[in-house]
Amino acid sequence: MRIVGVLALQGDFEAHARALEQVGARPVLVRKAAELDAAEALVIPGGESTTMLRLLEDEGLFEALRAFGRERPIFGTCAGAILLATEVTNPTQSSLGLMDIAVERNAYGRQIESRIVRLAPEPEFAREAGDGALEAVFIRAPIIRRTGPGVRVYARYLGDPVLVAHGRHMAATFHPELSSDRRVHRLFLERIEAGNARAG
Ligand code: GLN
User: Fold this and answer.
1) What is the pLDDT of residues 71-87, one digit of tens each?
2) Which of 49, 50, 55, 89 has the most ligand 1 atoms within 8 A of CB, as the residue to mutate?
3) For the domain that residue 68 is a member of, what is the CATH number?
4) CA within 13 Å, CB half, 9
5) Is 78 assigned a catalytic role?
6) pTM listed for this prediction
């Protein structure tokens, strides 16, 4: 059974822990750097990326996560995706820089702060995770404005990438843990199992 850490400083980490259990992984809540040791991979949940950054720095976890991500897979959702990016705007803030994506925070604006949509994922998603529309819950979501050459796009919304992978890492600007469809968490688990074989 895969042991997957869930960063539990702030945000909706409990829903991720449940989703990981449902796909057959063993979640461990991570609040301190030492708790990363047992984890083969990590989920960084949604929440408030500025608050999370501050807590990461207070706990000495920022550098620990960066080092973790150089060897093991991380899946960031929403605020977690913001933390994984190389570039963050609106406003500019520091990030782990583990995925070659540029994100603009709160980019859908006030009117569509939160919405639930059904996406038609890219063929790659269907091939690796299974057919069918994918529900996506957006909550004050960022938009991925740029993806580097090694980034794989699994799904888009209104033309912008919303589910991407780069090397061993994965990011979603929506909240798959809040839907009942477990294909996204299963995909992350499969990518862990495949090691870095599918990178690029
Ligand atoms: N708007 C939040 C941020 O910028 C992200 C929202 C979320 O994670 N649901 O950090």
Assistant:
1) 999 999 999 999 999 99
2) 49
3) 3.40.50.880
4) 27
5) yes
6) 0.95
